[in-house]
Write a structure and sequence with these properties.
This protein is of the alpha/beta class. Among the domains are: about 145-335 and about 385-445, von Willebrand factor, type A domain (Rossmann fold, 3-Layer(aba) Sandwich), CATH 3.40.50; about 460-640. The protein is built from 16 helices and 16 strands. It has helices at about 1-15, 25-45, 90-115, 155-175, 190-210, 250-255, 270-280, 310-320, 395-400, 435-440, 450-460, 460-475, 490-520, 530-565, 595-610, 615-625, and strands spanning about 55, 60-65, 115-120, 125-130, 150-155, 175-185, 225-235, 235-240, 295-300, 325-330, 340-345, 355-360, 405-410, 485, 580-585, 630-635. The chain has a seven-stranded mixed beta sheet with strand order 5-13-10-9-6-7-8, sandwiched between helices. It has a three-stranded antiparallel beta sheet with strand order 14-15-16, with helices on one face. A hairpin with a 5-residue loop joins β3 and β4. α5 (about 190-210) packs antiparallel against α6 and α7 packs parallel to α8. The longest helix is centred in the last third of the chain and has 33 residues, at about 530-565. Mean pLDDT is about 75; it is low at about 45-80 and about 85-145.
Length: about 675
């Protein structure tokens, strides 16, 4: 009995520890014994019901019809029908809802199966459940704590489709399968959607050739081995088929009819929740066969992070509760940033085909940004977009929590050097650098709920200080300092230097505040075990210290040039006298020992990132930071005074375009 209670507790809660571990209290044994005694007495006193009949008030018996539990799937004929423009599912959907109600009756019997479950522990210590006597790998059981793959990097969507086709094939080998494709309706996905359609034609032909699809001329949907449904989502969720179809030609036609959504809103989690509610009954375990009535797989195709992240917990819950794996063919998230610059070309050839920049939400890879937005020196920035090694947080968490896979697709991933704008494929994000997915596995973000994430921040001053510092810098990028000071006359020169000093006076307190935020987490650094948080904190405090020293010494150097410094006389009397001061980075800090000590401390933090976290975004940024000197030095040069500058010669063709040349109209990118 105690063993049974432990087993039931672990199955219901997913926790290994139970209230029944260790010694059993005497009162519990007494309670169980008394309950058994009461049941025996009740059985002797209450008349039994025999011969499968019911006793009524008159004492007459009436036979009770026994209904055997069977697999309840609506008896639906399939035909070439696409959903209407209103998005209504129609009569077939009503039949599915009726079947779900009927399945609720069948589901009562599944509770009895839990007595036959054996508890087992996987190699990573996670509790799993299985049914006695069944072969390994059957769909009759599912892991309570299954985790998926947080990041698989591919250079083309076709590679992701091939991997997913293998998952579908494996599912078909064990059971009938429903594949639900959920497509983003944004304009930036037009080209990728076409590539996927072309690839899916081959995938479904290969599946048919494998012989796993069974007879294709069967009249009822429930007998078809593979069913496909298509759902589109943008600002709303729109089913593209009135019912799942075994004919991929119908599904392909539905994909081709997905319309562009120009609202810029992507309700991806809402689409997942609706699909899960619609098809969860199919994925339940049948009480007789002890197998799922049909395996269900959700595959999302999107190049954005989505705009309903607040619904992620609900999507994760319904998919995990019903053991519904979610796969995503998506994009890599930019490291520590929300938006990327996407290379957009007007899909209509009647308009200007010059590539334009479109801002698209594709990140960040973590629940909250964990990277500072901070210029290095003002003219060499750290703000460029680079690969994070993972997909957008919410979608990747959905895959990870449900046992699916997130495929991060980018055509420039094969590049072993920095990517230039002219090398970026159309409708792709401008990410300059990419990182090995195997290396990045050790730096996986914390795929947890917002409450759990906030709890972890409260427990660690290091983590909370890093997140607060990232939020502090995102409130506004620190202004780039002025580095060139022409001296055409004394008053003009003093004014320009004074303006730069005022700008520095604004920057310095903010940098001091940034450093103090990070300094509050410094004491917790030795206790931090996560490689991701180690790298993130060391890089941030190294950057903050470097920026602080640069700002302080910048102000000191301005005071020096305004009051004491003179231009060197020309070595040759025929050469012009220099009239401009240039402030340039220098390896040495000449403004005092305090600044020098802080500079050395910054280098120590940054060098630790490079040494301990090679091949990661943190190491790349730290290495670039170390290559730029922290100190400053003055250089002299010459600038032509405004009154001596010659006007630019006008090209005769300027303003006189070829009358035979027809200019295409240009329109800005839509909301993506």
């Amino acid at each position: 009995m105690i063993k049974y209670l432990r087993r039931m507790w672990q199955i219901r809660t997913g926790r290994v520890e139970t209230p029944f571990d260790g010694g059993v209290p005497f009162w519990m044994i007494s309670l169980i014994a008394h309950l058994v005694l009461i049941l025996l007495i009740a059985k002797l006193i209450v008349p039994g019901i025999t011969d499968r009949s019911l006793l009524n008030l008159s004492g007459e018996t009436e036979p009770l019809e026994v209904i055997e539990n069977e697999e309840v799937i609506p008896d639906l004929e399939f035909e070439d029908m696409l959903a209407d423009d209103s998005g209504a599912i129609g009569e077939a959907d009503a039949a599915l809802e009726d079947a779900e109600l009927a399945m609720a009756m069948v589901d009562i019997e599944t509770d009895a199966l839990e007595e036959d479950l054996d508890l087992d522990f996987s190699d990573d210590g996670l509790l799993a459940t299985g049914i006695e006597g069944m072969a390994d790998g059957t769909e009759a059981f599912a892991e309570i704590a299954t985790k998926g793959n947080a990041g698989t990097a591919v250079a083309a969507a076709s590679g992701a489709v091939d991997r997913i086709s293998a998952e579908i094939l494996q599912s078909l080998e064990s059971n009938k399968t429903l594949v639900v494709w959920l497509f983003d309706q944004s304009g930036s996905l037009l080209e990728q959607r076409t590539q996927i359609m072309n690839r899916l034609d081959k995938v479904y032909l290969d599946l048919e050739a494998s012989g796993l699809l069974g007879e294709r001329d069967q009249a009822q949907l429930e007998n078809q081995r593979l069913l496909t449904d298509i759902i589109a989502f943008g600002n709303s969720v729109k089913p593209m088929l009135k019912q799942p179809t075994p004919d991929y030609a119908i599904a392909s036609k539905a994909i081709g009819k997905i319309k562009l959504d120009t609202t810029g809103v992507e309700r991806v989690m809402e689409a997942v929740i609706e699909a899960a509610n619609k098809y969860k009954w199919m994925h339940k375990i049948d009480s007789e066969t002890r197998q799922r009535k049909r395996n269900v797989r959700f595959i999302i195709v999107s190049d954005e992070a989505g705009d309903d992240g607040d619904r992620t917990d609900a999507a994760v819950k319904i998919c995990r509760t019903n053991k519904l794996p979610v796969y995503v063919i998506g994009v890599p998230a930019p490291f520590g940033r929300q938006q990327t610059d996407v290379k957009w070309v007007d899909p209509d050839p009647n308009f200007d085909q010059t590539p334009q920049v479109a801002k698209v939400n594709q990140g960040p890879e973590s629940l909250m940004p964990e990277r500072l937005q901070l210029d290095l020196t003002g003219d060499v920035g750290d703000l460029e977009m680079i690969d994070s090694g993972f997909g957008p947080f919410n979608l990747t968490r959905l895959c990870y929590e449900t046992g699916g896979i997130y495929f991060a697709v980018h055509p420039n991933r094969r590049s072993s050097r920095g990517v230039r704008w002219n090398e970026v494929s159309n409708y792709s994000a401008f990410l300059r650098h990419f990182f090995d997915s195997e290396t990045m596995k050790a730096y996986r973000p914390d795929y947890v709920s917002r409450d759990a994430y906030q709890s972890a921040l409260r427990e660690s001053t290091l983590r909370s200080s890093l997140v607060r510092a990232a939020a502090f810098t995102s409130a506004g990028t620190l202004a780039a300092p002025t580095l060139r000071f022409p001296k055409f006359d004394e008053a003009q020169f003093v004014n320009s230097v004074s303006r730069a000093q005022r700008d520095a006076a604004i920057i310095e307190p903010r940098l001091n505040q940034l450093f103090e935020i990070l300094k509050s987490g410094e004491a917790a650094r030795p206790q931090e075990a996560s490689l991701r948080w180690q790298a993130g904190f060391d890089l941030a405090i190294g950057q903050a210290l470097s920026a602080k020293v640069r700002a302080e010494t910048y102000n000191m150097m301005l005071a020096m040039v305004k009051t004491r410094m003179k231009f060197d006389p020309p070595r040759d009397k025929d050469k012009r006298q220099n009239n401009t001061w240039l402030l340039r980075p220098a390896d040495t800090v000449t403004t005092g020992s305090r600044s020098e000590k802080m500079a050395n401390k910054a280098k120590t933090y940054l060098q630790r990132v490079v040494t301990q976290h090679p091949g990661t975004p943190w190491a790349m940024i730290a290495k670039r930071e170390l290559e730029i000197p922290i100190g400053w030095t003055w250089r002299q040069t010459y600038t032509t005074p405004p009154e001596q500058r010659q006007p630019r010669r006008r090209n005769p063709s300027d303003g006189n375009p070829d009358p035979d040349r027809r200019m295409q109209p240009k329109r800005p990118p839509p909301n993506l």
